Amino acid sequence: MQQLYPLKFTPILKDKIWGGKKLNNLLYKSEASDKAGESWEISGVKDNVSEVANGFLAGNNLQELIEVYMGDLVGQKVFEKFGTEFPLLIKYIDAADDLSIQVHPNDKQAAERHNSFGKTEMWYVMQADEDARLISGFNQEVDKDLYLQKLEEKKILDILNSEVVKPGDVFFMPAGRIHAIGSGCLIAEIQQTSDITYRVYDFDRKDDHGNTRELHTEQAVDVIDYSFYSNYKTSYKVQPNIPGNLAKCEYFTTNLVELSGSIERDMVAFDSFVIYMCVDGQAEIIQENQDVTVLKKGETVLVPAELTQYYLRAPGHAKLLEVYIEDTNDENKNG
User: How far apart are CA 280 and CA 251, in angstroms?
Assistant: First the structure.
């Protein structure tokens, strides 16, 4: 069997009522329309399984690869836990308009209601227009009754935490936290494999046919975490050429690598696939056999678990999000 190699996938582009032009203009997704809201970079979601775009495995989809290569591709412990279902969904999101205010169920709720995984996620802000904002959590102590009152009065925004964002901002979004991406944000998103969203409020928007989108008030009310936190944004420090941690939870670990020159990565201890999202600049992954995979801004690559040692190199300067799965039960409520 031929050795695995860093895998690129054909982006799955999703037009959205709130989508825009940045996936094309800033991330060079030439197939993206003027209403493209999401680029699913790596997906194992049913009916949206990513297809390999490079090398001898081109044309095969991710699930087929896991069936053949199993732990060599995803890591033995990952395969034992998830089987042929890929555990993460990796996206770029362009919000030209506000997304709906929403919440996602946790694993237990999603399993009972939808036979699915829950949805814990994180956001890395790649670009933000002036005064672009997002919503994460509540801005005061809230209970279910107050929440429902404000929702009925269409004053839900009064009790939500809204923050102006800039490039490099990070928000960890555990299942149950109410949230929304605001207009003007270009975001890299790492999340559990789940497409379950409970839409709480959609600003009374109508689509091209004059219809409002479905709301999920009853499903959401018992899913929302009504806790109030003084800070929702992740604080972090990164030194050049040293991966700095942005998020660590049982579902994924994400590091930021600010790369100039070359660094060696030895990932043997993690027994996991590694995903790199290039959020700025251009980088290269260099294997021991000297094969080189180029990673440009807006591109994503999956390094199979069996490739445990390789180099990351940037001809100039690059920023990479590095994502893998660790054995951890760490609590990461706010990053």
Answer: 25
Q: The domain that contains 255 carries what CATH number?
A: 2.60.120.10
* The two structure tokens encoding residue 23: 């996936």
Dump pLDDT digits (tens) for 58-96. Answer: 999 999 999 999 999 999 999 999 999 999 999 999 999
Please tell me the total count of domains within the chain. 2
- pLDDT tens-digit readout, 245-304: 999 999 999 999 999 999 999 999 999 999 999 999 999 999 998 999 999 999 999 999
In a domain, 95, yes or no: yes
- 8 Å CB contact between 105 and 222: no
Hey, which residues are catalytic here? 199
Among candidate residues 335, 328, 275, 298, the one with its CA nearest the CA of residue 121: 335
Helix (H) or strand (E) holding 113: helix 107-114
pTM attached to this predicted model: 0.94
* Residues 212 and 304 placed together within one structural domain of the fold: no
Phi and psi based region of residue 161 (left: phi greater than 0; alpha: psi -120 to 50; beta: remaining) = beta
Domain that holds residue 190: 12-221
